[in-house]
Design goal:
It is a single chain. By secondary structure, the chain is of the alpha/beta class. The chain is built from four helices and four strands, in the order βαβαβαβα. The chain starts with a strand and ends in an 11-residue tail after the last helix. InterPro entries: TOPRIM_dom (IPR006171).
Length: about 110
């Protein structure tokens, strides 16, 4: 089985923003807000052999999702937007590109200028 990288975000606007920056095919899964441990397990069951990245907002909702992941999926890697932007969807493209590039993702070069 081929190793994949999966990015978990909170909503569709986050997914669209990341898709615009990424220059490689990456599965992006939306939690659609606060979720239960059961729902997270259900969402991620097909990806148990893949590398999971959690990229949620820097707010209370995002932190509660992140806490669930740290407890139930400790092997997941966490990506953080700067608190000043609060949300992934409002983080500038250049900042998103730098965050993703630091984790080894391929990004479109125009977002690095």
């Amino acid at each position: 089985m081929e190793f994949r990288r999966i990015v978990v975000v909170e909503g569709g606007a986050d997914r669209k923003r990341l898709q615009k920056v990424l220059a490689e095919p990456v599965e992006i899964i939306c939690t659609n807000g606060t979720v239960s441990p059961y729902r997270i397990e259900e969402l991620l069951a097909p990806y148990e052999d893949d590398q999971i990245y959690v990229f949620v907002d820097a707010d209370d909702s995002g932190e509660s999702i992140r806490t669930l992941f740290k407890r139930d999926f400790p092997e997941a890697l966490h990506l953080y937007t700067e608190r000043v932007y609060r949300q992934v969807e409002t983080t500038p493209y250049r900042t998103l590109a730098a965050i993703l590039l630091a984790e080894g993702f391929h990004v479109h070069p125009e977002f690095l200028l």
